[in-house]
Amino acid sequence: MTSLSLKNVSKSYGTVEVLRNINLEIEAGELIVFVGPSGCGKSTLLRMIAGLEKITGGTLEIDGMVVNDVPPAQRGIAMVFQSYALYPHMTVYDNMAFALKLAGKSREEIDKAVRAAADRLQLTQYLDRLPKALSGGQRQRVAIGRSIVRDPKVFLFDEPLSNLDAALRVATRIEIAQLKESMPESTMVYVTHDQVEAMTLASRIVVLHGGNVEQFGAPLDLYERPANTFVAQFIGSPAMNLIEAKVTATGATTSVQMADGGHADVPVASESGDSGATVKLGVRPEDLTVTDSDDFLVSAQVELVEALGETTVLYFMSRNGEPALIAKLPGIHRIEKGTTIRLTAAPKKLHLFDSAGKSFLYR
Amino acid sequence: MVAGKKSGLTWAVHISVAALVLLWLFPTVGLFVSSFRTADQISSSGWWAALFPSEQNEVYRTADPDTRVADGDMFTVSGNIFESNPRDIRSWGVSSRDVSAYKPGDTADMGDGESLTLQADGAYVWRGTDEQISGRGQRVFVTATVPPEFTLDNYATILFSGTGQDNMGKAFFNTLTVTIPATIIPIVIAAFAAYALAWMEFPGRALLIAAVVALLVVPLQLALIPLLRLHLAVGIGKGYMGVWLAHTAFGMPLAVYLLRNYMVGLPRDIIENAKVDGATDFQIFTRIILPLSFPALASFAIFQFLWTWNDLLVAKVFLIDATGSTTVMTNQIVELLGTRGGNWEILATAAFVSIAVPLLVFFAMQRYLVRGLLAGSVK
Description:
The structure holds two protein chains of two kinds. By secondary structure, chain A is an alpha+beta fold. Chain A folds into two domains: 2-234, P-loop containing nucleotide triphosphate hydrolases (Rossmann fold, 3-Layer(aba) Sandwich), CATH 3.40.50.300; 241-362, CATH 2.40.50.140. In chain A, 23% of the residues lie in helices and 33% in strands. In chain A, strand 7 (154-158), helix 5 and strand 8 (187-192) form a beta-alpha-beta unit. The relative contact order of chain B is 0.10. The chains are: A alpha+beta, B alpha+beta.
């Protein structure tokens, strides 16, 4: 069943358009992550779903009902803010009970809901405390608890982990994943700029860039089959290498030739019209391997070696103005700075993008 | 400034602060001390002298010779020159030409066998012939150290005396009657206005804020006459209602401005969260904004309270009529200056009664005053 449906939703401030024709169909029980660089409009989109920003074009449906002009409280949503937005003058209990009190629920009903949520989030012993007496992680849990007691159709999370330190972030991320597990029927929309959070939490990811949806799909789909160079480079760290190449043969397998003599046969279909076209060959740093044979992808001079034990990251000299290549090799490699080495990769790990940056897979 | 290093300016700052504190403290303490002294004490020495024991010359007389006792062919009169409050005698004499001729315990030879012995505690023995111990008692000039002496009589006069002219009790309650509503009414109205101007979207909001700021620069003296004419025209006339309305109107621009600036600095997320929780604007205002704005409300309350308490002009224009039954303390002090201009002890006491409540309010709530002052500007 569709829980949340966005049809041609757009947002503009005067003549400035910040979101264009967003179309998303979100199923009940999914955890959708909006990810993108800062300024891409992901928070604005979330706030439009919450009802805190006016929708200037298109329609938004929650549970099959158009809610464009419905005030936030009646949309059946609950939101967790980046700053937690706890009411500083109320105890944890009152913070969680606030929405229910406003809704005119009975005292017993409120007490039951608050205690159940507190129990689930291990907050029972803090119910009488003020937010200022809590640690960052506890405050975050109160903010989540406040949304749980309302029993909403859709949970909205606006960068909920960005105020936590690194260790707590991992712990809270796992807690959110467990929370989702324990509430399989509730839909969650989660905004972040951290791709690790996106990859680990999401059932599907929406990659936003410049007010457009670049790709909408399962995390590993985005990793293995990026729709364009933006998604290819945004998902995965270090970012995917893009090497300029010329198409030499078309068909079910496309052959490309690099300027420095390297070549590759990519198992991606192309049309005869592509012959001779300039394309971008994409290969992830972790897919590159060192080779001695003449059948290599690229050869480049090592500029910097980062030996991490678990992996060895090689940074190569940039050639003729192209972005420098990066290779991430598993284990320990004794490679001297300044040596020129040849690199290759398994053909099915290669990606092809046309001059506009669009993947050959999605043409 | 680099940590651990003190700039030379620090001393300049400290000295200036000390100078300002002394400048403020001296008259206040002087007023306070003077209010516990008698008119004679005020005219004979400064208030600072009242804090320490002082040397005074006093004249006493021994008991009448009728009480003399025969001692051989001489007679003696003995007793203590201090009947009630003993003094510490430094020196004494029996003639006005030399009031400090003798030490305590010495015997003064007054010629022809007549003598007077005075002990440090005031005990004396006057000895002489039948002829010499006659008439009135012997005069004794004493130079003694007098301990500080304070009296509550002035407060009794000001607060409890029956005469309407000196009694400030009624004026005190009149001032309270003016001040308390004149503090509460503008705060209540301004808090609503400030919330709307800070957090509600409506056309013309920016213009309204600009208008409020513009009203801050209008001097209230400009509005006195038109406002009084208006009050008379609509039938409010002179009275408490008129003065409450006037204080409310004059205090409102600053109140709205201060409170709006404070409220606009509250985190947007909290207010949006309340909206998502289903709160109406009124509920957001009463349950979230008001409790969180307490420091700003308190600081404005202190301002408005002090200013209405010390006000004379607005009260004179809008409140005090010919009967004088609604006079306030400031006005009563002005009148006292005319009727009791020479009685400094009464004036000092009246002044201290009038500043006692503001001082109390200031010391009780000073942390809100400082916090609230910074609130609007620095966030």
